[in-house]
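Slide 14.
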Amino acid sequence: MPVACSLVRRSAARQKRLFCLIPVALALAACGGGSDSADPVAVPTPATPLSLTGTAATGAAIAGQLVEAKCNGGNGNATSLADGSYAITLSAGQLPCVLRVTTADGTVLHSVATGTGSTAKANITPVSELVLANLSGGAPAGYFTAFDAAAATALTAAKADDAVTAVVATLQAAGVDLTGTGNVLTATLVAANGSTAGNAFDQALDALKTRLTTNNPGADFKTALATLADAVAKASPAAPATALSNTPSLPADLLLQPAAANCSALRSGKYRLVINRNQPASDGHATKLLTIDAATETITDDEGTPNNLTANGNCRYKTPANGDLVVSQAGIFVAQIDDGSTFHLGMAFPEQAHPVSALAGDWNTVQLDRTEDNGPIVLTNSTATIDTTGKLTGITFCEPGVPCFSGTLAATAGFPVLNHTVNANGGFTSGQPSNGYTDRVFLYRTGGGELLRISTTDAGGHLSLSTRKATNSLPAEGRVAEYWNITQNNNYTAGSITEGKNTVRTLNAAAGSFLRDSQINASTGVTRPETLKINTPRDGYSERVGETVTASDGSASTVGTFIALGLRGTGISAVGIPGNNTLALSINK
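Slide 15: predicted structure.
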């Protein structure tokens, strides 16, 4: 049947209208042109629904709770069953997806599903919460809330797999073994519920929960897991420098280890000890590997000799040789180390493995060492750049009585390029191939994600402490700091640990300085005013101004100049006193 059409022209003041009479029997036809043929019309194929399944559990099934999914282009939800299983079908949306469930006690857990098909599996557990923390380099809750098309594009299966590998390794180091489970996001998870016992995966979740609550007294599971996830996020390669924290805290694996009764920062595990002492090259580097049993407060050296510590206050101990030992809130202990005739300065920190690329960046350093063979032991400070291959490429180096050197090492005589290579016995070897000079270098990542770099040489002493170069901010007015101090002179002899306290009085933002009252006599409480300039001589350092002041008891007091470098994230400052070439460490209580 033909289609009748008419084009009716109206006056210029009116519109054109096209009237087409289309019989009901005809689905679609062309109008005009005199043609009887019709073009075929493509009927949209319905999108394949996306199916998400998995199990939500914490060592017991998370039953009857809302499971939410945010996917690339669509959202969905379902209620978990008695065994913790869930199934979500999305009519619109593609992988990848992020998921969320809230337990009955208010603990929020997240997970991730990746791939390219129309089905995916994602278990939602405390482990998946850690995986998402590592993957995002931030808070899983924030990542879930902000998840959008751009985040979905950046999220790949390879990145998720890398995060799984990193988290499983962290948990294994802390005694929670998931290596036989398979991929923790997709592995078979039978959660304990009713008369059904959990499988090995579920039992590992129980072990994780027990370690978190047992080894962090006073913190419930929700709080302890959040702290652990934060440490995992800050240790992630995805964490931006702006997300790192200067507040001293423990790394993720230590949070799962037993703690000493009088010090939550002293945990069981393997520790690297570096000693600042003069020794012949034949004795090797001044470093040892220790094993700490925090429950018994025992340190066993690499020769199998146990040393029992005696508590002497919160996070402070006496060694068998009657030396002092204190522990920072980042899990680093600073001590007088006895060699049979005198005490030397020692620092020990949990042993960690890092790739050479972790050394990349700009480092500020304070160092006590000789700057020439058989020369005097002096304090130096420097800012150096290391590339991703471990090569030291440039430096600003300052030593007493000599103008600071600044330049590119490769082109400068006397400063040959230093390369770092992984040492099979731990840490790195740093050397000058031209003269056989080598250092042992170690990295320790704190719970805030900041790295401490420590090096020791194979002869003649040497202790070098480095931290990421970052601009200092003025402290808060009224801030009170309490700390321990230990000094090492240029004969490598360490003094006893003393206590100190200071209070920030006023700030001078224009001058980049502040005035503090510093306690100079702990027994009487006498204080004196001291002026400190931040970011002097370079960003990240502080300088105490040398001057004569009046103490709180009316007496005259001479304030000596020093250069201080806060070792970010450790709660420790390295202080160089150039007047007598003494290195002091100040450890926040």
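Speaker note: The mean pLDDT is 88.
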